[in-house]
């Protein structure tokens, strides 16, 4: 597959293609083409592979005298900004039920939903040439080229709105020391019901300084014009990019899992997939919440106070009225959680082990089980 990439990139000469194969890395090949503009399209729909390819290009390609556009789309995923709190931003329970992954990107900003009806554009430049207005102009002009009557405009916060009211695109950026990228989404035919469901947080009582998303009413471009499709829109943005920057780059397919041409990329994807990055990089926060506990005959209110740093529970205090459950039991359970990850799988294991230590008392066992379930469900 990567040969296709090489041959496209080196379309000018067969000699160049042969030497590219010998050299083997994508950045070598890009350097050899000598082109100042390149358009890549991902063959993968895996969010972690695609984010890793962005990192790889940012770290390995000389962007001082070169601009690149990367086109990509993902299977359903929720993508949070670098400084965000996933417990505050999304419905992790629904995501787990539906097998939708959470990804933390390296750029800042808010949380968005991706699926194959959402396309992404990443504009790579030198830091000096970083220009979000110009990039969004490429997207809006491409849409205007396809449907001249369509009212699509970029806002001062770099969203793109349809008819002045519905968001169709969100923006984020990473500025490195010398290189930069600006990436944006474009909602073509995404599953809007799923988008709303996964972006509805369930965890109550979070106090944090993490970046908060700015929710907006969203719409798909295809709701406005069902004759459009994602591929046509991607092609049109690619062609408008060439026009805007005076390039004549073909769209080159890239396989972001190809370790031979992208050395180190698999490790980059693994880093993005790791719990330590997605959850562990959450800015320090606390949870202060009250919840109901029930059994067949009675009901009470319990409170939970936790401090969480790097996704790890630093302090934990669960209080249940003493006439409902002996104080020692909830206190002991709280102590067991300290030092563990704020993670339902790990907490379930801790809870199961703890439940086995409770002195034989069916009523307390039952109540303690309910308490453990409620705590696990918050994670
Ligand atoms: N796919 C998509 N596109 C546009 N808007 C969306 C999308 N998903 C959700 N939203 C809406 O935006 C807000 C969040 O807006 P907010 O402004 O807080 O955040 C963003 O826009 C971030 C955009 C990141 C773009 C990157 C490009 C490649 S990887 S992700 C959310 O609550 C929804 O109302």
Automatic annotation (TrEMBL):
Residues 63-249 form the BPL/LPL catalytic domain. It is an enzyme of class 2 (transferase). Pathway: Protein modification; protein lipoylation via exogenous pathway; protein N(6)-(lipoyl)lysine from lipoate: step 2/2. Its EC number is 2.3.1.200. One of its GO terms (molecular function) is lipoyltransferase activity. Its main location: mitochondrion. It comes from the Eukaryota. Keywords: Acyltransferase, Mitochondrion, Transferase, Transit peptide. One of its GO terms (cellular component) is mitochondrion. GO terms for biological process: protein lipoylation. InterPro entries: BPL_LPL_catalytic, LipoylTrfase_LipoateP_Ligase. It catalyses: N(6)-[(R)-lipoyl]-L-lysyl-[glycine-cleavage complex H protein] + L-lysyl-[lipoyl-carrier protein] = L-lysyl-[glycine-cleavage complex H protein] + N(6)-[(R)-lipoyl]-L-lysyl-[lipoyl-carrier protein]; (R)-lipoyl-5'-AMP + L-lysyl-[lipoyl-carrier protein] = N(6)-[(R)-lipoyl]-L-lysyl-[lipoyl-carrier protein] + AMP + 2 H(+). It is found in: Mitochondrion. Signal peptide: none annotated. The keyword Transferase applies. CDD domains: LplA. Belongs to the LplA family. Lipoyl amidotransferase that catalyzes the transfer of lipoyl moieties from lipoyl-protein H of the glycine cleavage system (lipoyl-GCSH) to E2 subunits of the pyruvate dehydrogenase complex (PDCE2). Unable to catalyze the transfer of octanoyl from octanoyl-GCSH to PDCE2. In vitro, it is also able to catalyze the transfer of the lipoyl group from lipoyl-AMP to the specific lysine residue of lipoyl domains of lipoate-dependent enzymes but this reaction may not be physiologically relevant. This is Lipoyl amidotransferase LIPT1, mitochondrial. It comes from Oncorhynchus tshawytscha (Chinook salmon).
């Amino acid at each position: 597959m990567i040969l296709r990439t090489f041959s496209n990139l080196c379309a000018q000469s067969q000699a160049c293609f042969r030497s590219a194969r010998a050299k083997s890395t994508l950045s070598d090949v890009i350097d050899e083409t000598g082109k100042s503009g390149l358009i890549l399209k991902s063959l993968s729909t895996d969010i972690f592979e695609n984010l890793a390819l962005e990192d790889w290009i940012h770290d390995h390609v000389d962007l001082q005298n070169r601009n690149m556009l990367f086109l990509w789309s993902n299977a359903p995923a929720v993508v949070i900004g670098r400084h965000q709190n996933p417990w505050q931003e999304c419905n992790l329970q629904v995501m787990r039920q539906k097998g939708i992954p959470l990804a933390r990107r390296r750029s800042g900003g808010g949380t968005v939903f991706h699926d194959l009806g959402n396309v992404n554009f990443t504009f790579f430049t030198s830091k000096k040439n970083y220009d979000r207005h110009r990039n969004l102009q490429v997207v809006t002009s491409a849409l205007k080229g396809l449907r001249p009557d369509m009212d699509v405009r970029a806002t001062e916060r770099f969203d793109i709105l349809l008819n002045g009211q519905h968001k169709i695109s969100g923006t984020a950026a990473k500025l490195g020391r010398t290189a930069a990228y600006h990436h944006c989404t474009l909602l073509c035919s995404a599953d809007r019901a799923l988008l709303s469901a996964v972006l509805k947080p369930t965890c109550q009582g979070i106090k944090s300084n993490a970046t908060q998303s700015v929710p907006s009413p969203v719409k798909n471009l295809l709701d406005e014009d069902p004759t459009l499709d994602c591929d046509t829109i991607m092609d049109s943005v690619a062609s408008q990019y060439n026009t805007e920057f005076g390039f004549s780059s073909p769209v080159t397919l890239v396989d972001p899992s190809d370790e031979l041409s992208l050395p180190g990329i698999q490790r980059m994807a693994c880093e993005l997939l790791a719990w330590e990055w997605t959850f562990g990089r959450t800015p320090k926060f606390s949870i202060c919440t009250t919840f109901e506990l029930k059994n067949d005959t009675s009901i009470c209110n319990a409170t939970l106070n936790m401090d969480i740093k790097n996704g790890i529970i630093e302090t934990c205090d669960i209080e249940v009225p003493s006439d409902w459950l002996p104080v020692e039991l909830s206190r002991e359970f709280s102590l067991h959680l300290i030092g563990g990850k704020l993670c339902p799988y790990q907490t379930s294991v801790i809870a199961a082990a703890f439940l086995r230590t409770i002195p034989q008392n069916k009523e307390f066992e039952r109540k303690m089980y309910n308490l453990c379930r409620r705590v696990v469900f918050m994670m």
